[in-house]
Design brief:
This protein is mainly alpha-helical. The protein has a single domain (58-292, 361-585), classed as Growth Hormone, Chain: A (Up-down Bundle), CATH 1.20.1250.20. It contains 24 helices and 8 strands. The chain has helices at residues 16-24, 43-48, 58-78, 81-86, 114-131, 133-144, 146-167, 170-173, 176-206, 228-247, 249-259, 262-273, 275-282, 297-308, 316-323, 350-366, 369-388, 403-425, 432-460, 495-507, 509-519, 525-545, 555-577, 584-589, and strands spanning 38-39, 50-52, 213-217, 223-226, 288-289, 390-391, 487-490, 621-622. The chain has a 4-stranded mixed β-sheet. The protein has a two-stranded antiparallel ribbon with strand order 5-8. Strands 6-7 form a two-stranded parallel ribbon. α3 packs antiparallel against α9 (176-206), α3 runs parallel beside α10 and α18 packs across α20. The longest helix has 31 residues, at 176-206. The radius of gyration is 26 Å and the shape is globular. 52% of the residues are buried. It is a multi-pass membrane protein.
């Protein structure tokens, strides 16, 4: 479940589909006037001309490679944890490999700790790797910048993979406790490294694009508008494709674990990840690099505090109503007070309050995502156990989950070149809020499929769905890797949920990356992106609390419950945030046009709002052009 931008100019890119809607309904706008922050595009042209995406720079693809390699190494190892922890060594094996004669009914294994321990460790891994992005986001935004943070933590992540390889060596596997201890250590180290990378690759990949909105004449003679917003949307589609292309590394890992053993299966992703630091260093001169902005978190909390104070009441209903009033943020603005009576703690301007408002609005959208990631978490583990109860025909049960990234790789070009352009040509505003809502509904449909399938497995095999009856489920070869009396259903039938969840990710997960980038103020992009990723950790925590029902006999009920929850939350999400679609222009414009003379903690020389297309003080710089400013 394991990221393209430019603060130089990307921060002024409006949400164009919604801008068209806003303009068409606002008769007070001069249609022939040029839209600020564009290269000569008028409001009328924006209403009537087709939007297309721009070409992406080389530096974007260099960042994409970093994420591709990191995801290959992550999924190429984490996808094996279920069997590695749950099942014991197969007969005659010292590495976890399955004897050739046993591959029709056996799966690889190593530690033999059972399903509950496997579930617990895998859930902690998912939780931890999505908590640490907060650390990486704060470090990048306040101390090192994104480039240096990614480089340093890529070395940390590499060290974790080396430890993981050591945990699977034959000598370590002879003592299960040693191997388990090294595995736990590697999960911690990889979690810190991968999490801190994840918080920064997403914004860094989009900030490589620095283009302005402009007109272009195609060979056909059609005049179109090259849209930064559409370019960012397309960027994240292909960035997510790179993530999933990297995660298909788990395909080879499944066969390597079964045929050669786990230490080989873990070694290959480690060798691929070795390339990441080299690509970062060699590509340094091509990157658009944003320097750290300094700590503004304290000022952010102070703004929230000033706004909250008048709204707090012993009556919670009254407090909620006050918080939803348009003037809620006014007490935090310097302009709210008379001259000479501005509180000393207010060291920011009105524009910064708008930035905080935009950040809080974006973070509110992300708070619904744990329920989406609960559905995703099922394909990341429990459905592998479901597959193990079906007829394998020589297919490793943990191989099927790779259909998720494969389906995403296949569908993304279809969405980017056919579906989304078709909707834009028809004037259909398939906005971020609508796309995320669709993601919830499709994820729920995937869980319905999984629930129905599990019920059929329970009915067609006496060894699944109920407590195993020893007389009916006597183990072959003295190992529980040979799942006796499997369901006659072919294992590939389980592919449905993986494909449906892949479609749900295109709607919800990719859009969340886009939303986090376009809504985050330039100085808090990594922090906001990490907050959006934190919701996966929250989902893991909820899942961990459900350990008692994460057992095979209860899978039918579990999958069905997640389907209902996903649909209910999807409805609530849409009705809660449908108004945000109408405020896209306002939210995206905040914090982009004022000529600031310092960070949030410094009082600006002139609090008058000065409208500009680019904020020169906070624009990113190419490293090769840095003189006496921050050098990374």
């Amino acid at each position: 479940m394991a990221e393209k931008f430019d603060e130089k100019k990307v921060d002024r890119a409006p949400s164009l589909d919604d801008e068209k809607h806003a303009i068409s309904s606002d008769t007070g706008i001069d249609g022939d006037s040029v839209i600020e922050g564009t290269d000569g595009v008028t409001h009328n042209e924006l209403k009537t001309l087709r939007l297309v995406r721009d070409k992406l720079p080389l530096s974007s693809f260099l960042v994409v490679f970093v994420e591709f390699a990191e995801r290959w190494s992550y999924y190429g190892t984490a996808n094996l944890y279920n069997n590695y922890i749950r099942a014991p060594l197969p007969r005659f094996s010292t590495t976890g490999a399955v004897a050739k004669a046993d591959r029709d009914f056996g799966v690889a294994g190593a530690l033999g700790k059972g399903q509950p321990t496997s579930f617990s460790l895998r859930t902690f891994n998912s939780f931890f790797v999505y908590v640490t992005p907060l650390l990486g986001g704060v470090i990048a935004d306040t101390m090192w910048g994104r480039y240096k943070t990614i480089l340093v933590f890529s070395l940390v992540c590499l060290a974790g993979h080396v430890i993981l390889v050591g945990s699977a060596s034959p000598s370590a596997l002879q003592n299960g406790n040693v191997s388990l201890g090294l595995l736990a250590l590697s999960i911690l180290v990889i979690g810190v490294g991968a999490g801190c990378i994840k918080a920064n690759v997403s914004p860094m990949v989009a900030e490589q694009y620095t283009g302005l909105m402009h007109k272009k004449t195609l060979e056909s003679g059609e005049v179109v508008i090259v849209s930064p917003e559409v370019t960012i949307q397309s960027t994240y589609l292909w960035f997510y494709a790179a993530i999933n292309f990297g995660s298909t590394g788990a395909i080879s890992a499944s066969f390597l674990a079964r045929d050669q053993g786990y230490w080989i299966a873990y070694l290959i992703p480690t060798l691929i990840f070795v390339l990441v630091p080299f690509v970062l260093v060699l590509g340094k001169r091509f990157y658009v690099v944003t320097p750290p902005r300094g700590s503004i978190l304290l000022e952010t909390f102070r703004v929230i505090g000033f706004a909250l104070k008048p709204a707090l009441s012993f009556n919670p209903i009254k407090s909620v109503k006050l918080m939803h009033r348009p003037e809620f943020w006014d007490p935090a603005k310097p302009s709210y007070y008379e001259d000479g009576k501005v509180p000393a703690k207010i060291t920011w301007d009105d524009e910064f309050v708008g930035e905080v408002h935009r950040t809080v609005s974006a973070c509110g959208v992300f708070l619904f995502f744990p329920f989406f990631w609960l559905c995703y978490s099922q394909i990341d583990g429990n459905l592998g156990t479901t597959a193990a109860g079906m007829t394998l025909h020589g297919t490793p049960n943990d191989l099927i989950q790779n259909l998720n990234p494969i389906s995403i790789i296949v569908m993304i070009p279809i969405f980017d070149t056919l579906i989304y352009p078709f909707l834009r040509r028809r004037g259909i505003n398939f906005s971020p809020i609508k796309r995320i809502t669709a993601g919830f509904f499709v994820a729920g449909l995937a869980m319905v499929y999984a629930s129905v399938l599990q019920s059929y497995i329970d009915k067609t095999s006496p060894c699944h769905g109920t407590e195993f009856a020893p007389s009916e489920c006597e183990l072959d070869h003295g190992t529980d890797l040979a799942r006796p009396n499997p369901s006659p259903l072919n294992v590939w039938i389980v592919s449905g949920p993986y494909i449906l969840v892949g479609m749900a990710e295109i709607f919800a997960s990719i859009t969340s990356l886009e939303y986090a980038f376009t809504k985050a103020p330039s100085r808090m992009k990594s922090v906001v992106m990490s907050f959006s990723q934190l919701q996966t950790a929250v989902a893991s925590a909820i899942n961990f609390a459900l350990t008692a029902v994460n057992t095979e006999p209860k899978f039918t009920w579990l999958y069905g419950s997640f389907a209902v929850v996903s649909w209910i939350v999807g409805f609530i999400f849409f009705f809660t945030f449908r108004e945000l679609d109408r405020k896209e222009i306002e939210l995206n414009a905040l914090g982009k046009n004022q000529d600031r003379q310092g960070f949030a903690g410094e009082a600006p020389e002139d609090t008058t709002v000065k409208r500009r297309a680019v904020d020169p003080i906070h624009a990113p710089v190419h490293v090769s052009n840095v003189n006496d400013t921050e050098k990374l």
